TrEMBL record:
Lineage: Bacteria, Pseudomonadati, Pseudomonadota, Gammaproteobacteria, Cellvibrionales
Ranges for domain TraD/TraG TraM recognition site: 504-629
Record has Transmembrane helix as a keyword: yes
Protein name: Type IV conjugative transfer system coupling protein TraD
Source taxon at top rank: Bacteria
UniProt gene name: traD
């Protein structure tokens, strides 16, 4: 039995031993000892006093930490970085002993060692009562001060129960093996308890370690953005830093969410996945997928990179695309003077002779269709375009009406230029990034989706990015990281070692969809290590809409860090994985028995005894998760080892890499932008790369990569 919540009685023997030792040294005659024996006796007493003093100090420090933990701050430049370990903070391995100590703090008789005293409570009352009184307001300000010279200083505004960490005064740095990160990490914690600060700690280490770092931030947290920028600058990697932010389009880099794919069908899937899938909406979703796929195949066949602007244009009016592709097919078939033939045939068509489905269509498009049929020209893409063209326009508009509002949101205002970039615009100096190029350059990407402004657009762009990343993972699986970005025959295909890709998804319940699951399931072998942050697991279940699928997602996170949570079901995700342990309870028993035998000479008997009982309890309960102070967490690491950690608060004082405000960072980024005349051109090499993905023969007849 361990008893630390009690009066420090060791102090009495400590004082007595020191007094006796000093007396033996200074006045041996008072003890009637020769000097030599007195010196030895004094040394013995002093040694005994030191030993007892250490025991008293342990009790006093333990009781002090029960009421107030020391503040833990680390400057950004002092964050430890290892090539083999990930630093999480200070803490200790939680064992049965700590469960025992925590249960001991619940006893009524020890509350004066756990809760602040009456003088502290008086100070808290007076600092409010005296706040508006002219003279006493000065005293109130002094009581409110957190100076070290104020013995009645208020506790840090972290809330919770300090005893959860104070049960072990001996802290140590907590490190996690980097090999475990490939199994992905889940961070759970309610609002404003330190999730983003933990993200800053992990991101800082990943950047300095040289990983590819991708940060998804649906909210667009300015502090997190500034931290990522500052760490990129500190690590000398500012040239490889990309900012994509829907809330700051004038500053953001550009990205084509559907312009890169392994299979051409991915374009339609990324768009259709944003549509509702319940009830009658499922059928309209399938129709929308089919027509978007037809448009995407035609664009790629015409050597044009798909984007949202073009998809929206041809969903609303497919005739121009059909006419253009018909001319392309006629050229491939060797039909001469195609334009003249179309113009001549269009002049002969009378609308009154047309079937109802074709009335209102342009005569040029109808002429193209009839000429292609007469010349028996067959092409799978052309066949899809003709089938879409032959639909009655009113009926066609109805069956694709579900995709219209989504495309309207994605192509309205300044956001359209961000996610549907014009690759040939020499006036726009904002860079265009692609995930494969980011991986090859070991870049750093901050993605701010501005979900508070428009959740639909944020979700659509985020899911498209995740789908794109899954394609990148598939390419890396098959081909590795090619030096020059393509496997075309005329290109050097020297492979590089697969880099580590650290993906941090803050508020990932806003991002999760069908695209996120394969990223967790299968992308680990391609170097992806995902760290996901969310408030409650119910948010994820509500987003997915299926408890079984949510369980599938949870099963892919091998490491869990849980800060304070308010939902008991979320807390149970950690506590249910822990074993039960035995704790000891000391029970005092006393009793008195009177004697009924007058001749025995015994009138009564009394007894006093202490009994130790053993009971089995959970190592932690869900209620403990609810009372965690801010900045503290429990972590299940490396196969279920439970650690209690304190996350260091960031200390940005005198940090030369940290911009003083957002505008300073914006100015620096604008100066770093260069024209993109040599980036991502619509070249033969790009056509050569995507033609195989689209299922078409390449111009050179050789093989092409899937990217």
């Amino acid at each position: 039995m361990e008893a630390l919540l009690r009066p420090p009685v060791e102090l009495w023997s400590t004082v007595t031993a020191f007094a006796a030792g000093i007396l033996a040294w200074l006045a041996p005659w008072a003890l009637m000892m020769p000097p030599g024996i007195a010196m030895a006796t004094g040394a013995t007493f002093i040694s005994f006093g030191i030993w007892r003093g250490r025991q008293a100090w342990r009790v006093l420090r333990y009781q002090h930490h029960m009421k107030r933990l020391p503040e833990y701050r680390v400057r950004a430049g002092q964050i430890p970085v290892s090539r083999h370990k990930l630093f999480l903070g200070k803490g200790f391995r939680w064992t049965q002993q700590h469960t025992q100590r925590l249960r001991d703090t619940l006893k009524p008789e020890v509350q004066r060692y756990v809760q602040p005293g009456a003088l502290y409570q008086w100070a808290r009352q007076k600092e409010v009562a005296w706040e508006s009184i002219p003279v006493l307001s000065i005293w109130a300000k002094g009581l409110r001060s957190r100076s070290r010279w104020n013995p009645l200083a208020p506790l840090p505004a972290v809330g919770g129960k300090p005893a959860l960490h104070a049960v072990e005064p001996q802290e140590q740095p907590v490190w996690m093996d980097l090999g475990e990160r490939v199994g992905h990490t889940l961070v759970l914690g309610t609002t404003r308890v330190g999730k983003t600060r933990l993200a800053e700690l992990l991101i800082s280490q990943d950047i300095r370690r040289g990983d590819v770092v991708i940060v998804f931030d649906p909210k667009g947290d300015a502090d997190l953005l500034r931290r990522v920028y500052a760490e990129a600058k500190r690590a000398g990697r500012l040239d490889d830093f990309y900012l994509f932010h829907l809330g700051f389009p004038e500053l953001s880099a550009r990205y084509n969410a559907i312009g890169n794919f392994s299979r051409i069908t991915e374009v339609a899937t990324r768009i259709a996945n944003q549509l509702p899938n319940e009830g009658n909406s499922a059928a309209f979703k399938e129709f929308a997928w089919r027509f978007v796929n037809i448009i995407a195949r035609a664009l790629v066949a015409l050597k044009r990179r798909p984007d949202y602007q073009q998809i929206r244009r041809y969903i609303n009016d497919i005739e121009p695309l059909f006419v253009e592709y018909a001319g392309h097919c006629a050229e491939v078939a060797g039909i001469e003077a195609w334009s003249s033939l179309v113009e001549e045939r269009a002049g002969d068509i009378k609308e009154r002779n047309l079937p109802n489905a074709l009335r209102g269509r342009s005569m040029e498009a109808i002429a193209c269709m009839r000429l292609l049929q007469e010349n028996a020209i067959y092409d799978p893409v052309l066949d899809g375009l003709i089938s879409a063209f032959k639909y009655d326009k009113t009926y066609f508009d109805k069956i694709v009406s579900s995709v219209g509002p989504l495309m309207e949101k994605l192509t309205t205002g300044t956001i359209a230029a961000l996610i549907s970039p014009d690759y040939q615009d020499e006036q726009d100096t904002r860079p265009i990034f692609e995930w494969m190029e980011v991986v090859r350059r070991k870049g750093i990407v901050y993605v701010g989706l501005d979900a508070l402004t428009d959740t639909t657009v944020a979700s659509a762009v985020g899911n498209s990015m995740f789908a794109d990343l899954v394609s990148v993972a598939g390419y890396i699986y098959k081909h590795g990281v090619a030096a020059n970005g393509t496997d075309a025959p005329d290109t050097d295909t020297t492979a590089q070692s697969t880099p580590t890709i650290s993906l941090h998804a803050d508020e990932f319940n806003e991002l999760i969809g069908d695209e996120f699951v394969p990223l967790l399931n299968k992308a680990g072998g391609a170097g992806f290590q995902v760290t996901a942050y969310t408030q409650t697991w119910s948010d994820v279940e509500a987003r997915i809409g299926n408890r079984a699928k949510a369980g599938q997602v949870a099963g892919n996170f091998n490491t869990m860090l849980m800060l304070r949570v308010k939902e008991l079901d979320t807390a149970a995700m950690l506590t249910d994985q822990l074993p039960r342990v035995e704790v000891f309870t000391l029970m005092s028993v006393s009793g008195v028995d009177d004697s009924s035998d007058p001749g025995s000479g015994v009138d009564f008997k009394s007894r006093n005894e202490d009994r130790i009982s053993v009971s089995e309890v959970p190592m932690l309960t869900a209620a403990d998760m609810v009372t965690l102070p801010k900045g503290q967490a429990f972590a299940l690491l490396e196969g279920g080892q439970l650690w209690k950690i304190r996350i260091p608060l960031p200390d940005g004082r005198a940090d030369p890499a940290m911009p003083s405000d957002f505008e300073e960072m914006a100015d620096a980024m604008r100066r770093s932008y260069v024209t993109n005349d040599h980036w991502y051109r619509m070249t033969e090499r790009w056509w050569h790369a995507v033609s195989k993905a689209a299922g078409e023969p390449t111009a050179s007849g050789g093989s092409a990569c899937a990217w």
